[in-house]
Design a protein that fits this description.
alpha+beta, 6 strands, isomerase, Chitinase A, domain 3, EC 5.2.1.8, disordered N terminus
């Protein structure tokens, strides 16, 4: 009898645990897009441009140097925050652009060396359905980035 109960209830427990918290990418994309539009809409001077991947960008200062490509190594200073204004990270890094989050790969090529850009990045182009340090999962990210140099 115990084996029979194990046979009956074990699959039910497994199925029940699999159905919890199913991630719906299209629903999250719609949530992110609405949040981004509400965020940008609060600042009438913002004039951000959508790039087709869901990333919005505003070039604050264009710069005068070359534009990076995915094969470039970029040196940037940046400040990252959540839509609620909470800063989660800032600093200076030198990294291959190809190794950075998709939102940076999408947005930085619009900028020339010496310029500043603000990127509003949906979760799918940031850290997605995963938390990263103090960044909650499914977070829209706002980065202010200065492109110092590239190679």
């Amino acid at each position: 009898m115990k084996k029979f109960l194990l046979f009956v209830f074990a699959p039910l427990v497994i199925l029940a645990s699999c159905s919890k918290d199913k991630f719906d990418a299209s629903k999250q994309a719609a949530t992110d897009d609405a949040a981004i539009k509400a965020y940008i809409g609060t600042d009438t001077a913002y004039h951000a441009t959508a790039d087709g991947s869901g990333v919005y960008y505003k070039i604050v200062t264009q710069g005068t140097g070359a534009k990076p490509t995915l094969s470039s190594t970029v040196k940037v200073t940046y400040n990252g925050k959540l839509l609620n204004g909470t800063s989660f990270e800032s600093g200076t890094i030198t990294q291959p652009l190809s190794g950075l989050i998709p939102g940076w790969k999408s947005g930085l090529p619009y900028l020339k060396t010496g310029g500043r850009i603000i990127l509003v990045i949906p979760s799918r182009a940031g850290y997605g359905n995963n938390a990263a340090g103090s960044i909650p999962k499914n977070s829209v990210l706002v980065f202010t980035i200065d492109l110092l140099s590239l190679s």
